[in-house]
Amino acid sequence: MILLRRLLGDVLxxxxxxxxxxxxxxxxxxxxxxxxxxxxxxxxxxASSELLSAICDALDVRMSELMREVSDELSLAELAxxxxxxxxxxxxxxxxxxxxxxTSVAGVPTKRVTIKAPTEAVDVVAA
Length: 127
Description:
Elements: H1 4-18, H2 23-30, H3 34-41, H4 49-59, H5 63-84, E1 98-105, E2 108-117
Antiparallel strand pairs: 1-2
């Protein structure tokens, strides 16, 4: 099952790490406890819209950018789940897709699958 709170937490953590900031710095700036922010990043707590707004302000990231990245992650997770279940990709979507190899979804190791995803929605990270 794909958990939105886990995807959201992963995106928040990546945003923070891209800036080279610590949990303590962001939690202080967002005025949220360090422990709670940590739980949100690990997908253990659901963040309210007010909390997300405060975290986005602390990270100097638009909430729409955050949600767009979460949406892209969700799309990839759904495609990976579909590929793992051998469900075909709808014909109308096929021309817009490129092959991508996935070995984990939202940090959870999975069988190696090849999915087709929009080029602009894929972050390729070399291991």
